[in-house]
Write a structure and sequence with these properties.
The structure holds 2 protein chains of 2 kinds. Chain A is mainly β. Chain A has no helices and 13 strands. In chain A, the strands form 3 sheets. In chain A, strands 2, 4, 5, 6, 9, 12 and 13 form a 7-stranded mixed sheet that branches. Chain A starts with a strand and ends with a strand. Chain B is mostly beta strands. Chain B is built from no helices and 12 strands. In chain B, the strands form 3 sheets. In chain B, strands 2, 5, 6, 10, 11 and 12 form a 6-stranded mixed sheet that branches. In chain B, a hairpin with a 4-residue loop joins strand 10 and strand 11. The N and C termini of chain B lie far apart (41 Å). The chains are: A mainly beta, B mainly beta. The interface between A and B is medium-sized, with 23 and 22 residues.
Chain lengths: 116, 113
């Protein structure tokens, strides 16, 4: 399977704990996006990378959130000191960008986080 | 900031019939892209159809077609010959050139056998 993969698929944690999610994009894609989706809503943009550079961060991304893409391949999203409001589906998407033209974003299955 | 509005939280269609999902958006840009994504229950989001704003011709993909009205900032999705597998949440999304997606709140489509 050459699609976008995410790990874990489900995570239950207690308030105050740290969690880390991983996303593996489609191999030839140089752009990687993180979105958050709460129940009954559409996904909201969090941040994105072009290769290893983080180009934009949403105001939704508080200081407790950090994302990395160290070698321009997989990415991690860490949430420190989790709060119940962080409970959501975290979606990763990837796309290719070449000479200013960005192709369609393809989504992974998501990581569902529940903070107790 | 761009906004996307889907005013139909839920829609229902009889199998083999046609249904249209509505979407409007607000932007001051002239160069952008519009998408419809499908999210089946507990499954990942997949692209249904894409429209470039500079193209006057409406996009079609098999049973799926759009009605893109740029001046009215309207982008509706028509599903013909509806099938049980079409049941899902449908999200309309906007993207300016080379940037992130902005999604609407979605329309839940039920297909009656």
């Amino acid at each position: 399977d050459t699609g976008v993969s995410q790990d874990p698929r489900h995570k239950i944690t207690k308030r105050g704990q740290n969690v880390t999610f991983r996303c593996d994009p489609i191999s030839e894609h140089n752009r990687l996006y993180w979105y958050r989706q709460t129940l009954g809503q559409g996904p909201e943009f969090l941040t994105y990378f072009q290769n290893e550079a983080q180009l934009e961060k949403s105001r939704l991304l508080s200081d407790r959130f950090s994302a990395e893409r160290p070698k321009g391949s997989f990415s991690t999203l860490e949430i420190q000191r989790t709060e119940q409001g962080d409970s959501a589906m975290y979606l990763c998407a990837s796309s290719s960008e070449f000479q200013g033209i960005q192709e369609t974003q393809y989504f992974g299955p998501g990581t569902r986080l529940l903070v107790l | 900031a761009q906004t996307v509005t889907q005013s139909q939280p839920e829609m229902s269609v009889q199998e083999a019939e046609t249904v249209t999902l509505s979407c409007t958006y607000d932007t001051s840009e002239s160069d952008y892209y519009l998408f419809w994504y499908k999210q089946p229950p507990s499954r990942q989001m997949i692209l249904v159809i894409r429209q470039e704003a500079y193209k006057q011709q409406n996009a079609t993909e098999n049973r799926f077609s759009v009605n893109f009205q740029k001046a009215a900032k309207s982008f509706s999705l028509k599903i013909s010959d509806s099938q049980l597998g079409d049941a899902a949440m449908y999200f309309c999304a906007y993207r300016s050139s080379g940037d992130k997606l902005t999604f609407g709140t979605g329309t839940r489509l039920a297909v009656r056998p």
